[in-house]
Design brief:
- By secondary structure, this protein is an all-alpha fold.
- The protein has one domain (2-61).
- It contains three helices and no strands.
- It has helices at residues 2-5, 8-26, 31-61.
- Helix 2 (8-26) packs antiparallel against helix 3.
- The longest helix is centred in the last third of the chain and has 31 residues, at 31-61.
- The chain crosses the membrane at residues 33-51.
- Keywords: Membrane, Transmembrane, Transmembrane helix.
């Protein structure tokens, strides 16, 4: 779990969610809001995949 929380990609994805949450609360609800959430989901998925791949590479080296 620690490898996911302290990875730079995960920290960036989690930090970017704060802006999207504020836009959801205060902004208009239109197609751009949906695109923001989709892009955030994609970036979170890519960050998780990067951490998982890095962990697998470390396991193979040992």
């Amino acid at each position: 779990m620690r490898k996911y929380l302290f990875n730079g990609a995960m920290i960036g994805a989690i930090t970017s969610s704060f802006g999207i949450i504020q836009a959801t609360r205060n902004g208009p609800r239109d197609w751009r809001l949906i695109l923001m959430w989709v892009s955030w989901g994609i970036s979170l998925t890519l960050a998780i995949a990067a951490v998982r791949e890095e962990a697998q590479e470390r396991a193979l080296e040992q």
